[in-house]
Amino acid sequence: MDIKKIESLLKEIKSDKKSVSEALDILKHLPFEDLEFAKIDHHRGLRNNIPEVIFAQNKKTGDVVAIARAMLKRSGRFLITKASEDVYRALIEARGNRQEAINSKKLKFYPEAGVISYGEKQNKKGNILVISAGTSDMPVAEEAEATASFLGSKTERLYDVGVAGIHRLLSHRKLIGKTRVIIVVAGMEGALPSVVGGLTDRPVIAVPTSVGYGTSLGGLTALFAMLNSCVPGIAVMNIDNGFGAGCLAHKINMMG
Description:
Blueprint lengths: L2 H12 L5 H8 L5 E2 L4 E2 L3 H5 L5 E2 L5 H15 L2 E4 L3 H9 L13 E4 L4 E4 L6 E8 L5 H14 L1 E6 L7 H5 L2 H6 L2 E6 L5 H6 L6 E5 L11 H8 L6 E3 L5 H12 L3
Helix pairs in contact: 4-5, 6-11
């Protein structure tokens, strides 16, 4: 449930297209719906403009599907992160009433990132550029892009432009200059966000990945490098947190 849906519901009541009892039935699961194994926060989109997202890791496939169907019934959309192909297949095969019916044509699966989206906003706004240092960083970059796109931001990709071949990045300075927000995803030594930050006045969101050899320490080396960047104004996300970067970039992109 989001602000536009609430506004639409109130207008329908005012024009007698819906009765008060019908409206109450729609709103009865605000602020949350109790499924016993999960409490779905349908109210979250009204509070901060980012709806609750399903984190599928360590959840039973059936539970993920049940949560997704409950969200679909109330808002017509859902986003799932850290999802497997089994979850995607189960969603396609799911059966339910008309309000919970999943149209496979609207279901979008990003296998590398493990992201599943449904009911993605079509009228995209602004411009977010997602940059990845290497192809090994692409799953995290794709999670960031899929999240921002689902929320309603226009996105562009610039992949495999790490510091080992810095000329690849520099050949895209026009693209870097025209965007509103930049997400930079990098593992290894995590130097790329500092390089990008030194080339632009746009907000830069750095995402360290767990990619790298032994002393990368599962992404800690990249994280510390980004936190200690000498370029001012870089925001740093947690290791492999493309989802968080996509949310922050979207919020910045929607301002002004």
